[in-house]
Amino acid sequence: MNTKEKYSQLIKSEALRLGFLSCGISKAGFLEEEAPRLENWLNKNMHGQMSYMENHFDKRLDPTLLVDGAKSVISLLLSYYPSEIQNEDSYKISKYAYGQDYHFVIKDKLKDLLRFIQTEIGEVQGRVFVDSAPVLDKAWAAKSGLGWIGKNSNLITKQVGSFYFIAELIIDLELEYDYATTDHCGSCTACLDACPTQAIVSPYVVDGSKCISYFTIELKEQIPYEMKGKFDDWMFGCDVCQDVCPWNRFSKPHQEPLFNPNSEILSYSKKDWEEITEEVFKAVFKNSAVKRTKLEGLKRNISFLKD
Fold first, then answer.
1. Is 23 annotated as a binding residue?
2. What domain of life is recorded for the organism (predicted)?
């Protein structure tokens, strides 16, 4: 085993010990295939009011512009699939937001992994990324063999489905690189057929500005009236295209205590959500990604579903 292989195995073993589902490594460089795709998507305004998607176009496509001397992109998956889901008579929250805000949970694990690399291997510089910086995480995860990008534009893995977060560690150390896997969506169109707002405009292309997650989280103004009756009771995010994906029958509950939901999230009825107060909102969603919408945003979504 050469040094690069040895270091790569060491990093992957530690990633699994830290609770990550899997770890793949690819060579840092310009993402040639993604460049025209991203440009086309932005030109068609499929990002809606998510103007931050237009920023740092070059950095999004080239990690060497984010980290000096970057040689490797280490991609990691962390499951958030819950063991229990919400009460049936309820307004729905995307499963990723059941527990504590993943940004903080994952960032801590990534920092531990970077410290481990620096301790075991030596002077290695790098940065950790959890979807709050311009990194095309799905593209890097696919490039490093962790799954393929499905027709719903989510990363899908044969053994575990797609209910996981993707994060990266970009470092200036050369490692052994993994190969991309093949696409296993076949002729299936379950996600396209099930999307309540037809946001999956063609296989592998999602118009972000039509997605329920966009309307309930990103959009700050009133939800367009023509969307009335199409939200299938989702008040924060949407899991429909994942719930119907046949590969998600292999999803297994996560082992991360910080992702366990507050009991109210699972037990609340529609009436409970309709009557939620600021005090209850703060208690139920303490350290949660749902805080992004604030109570006002959640109430807007609920009244849109209710009226």
1. no
2. Bacteria
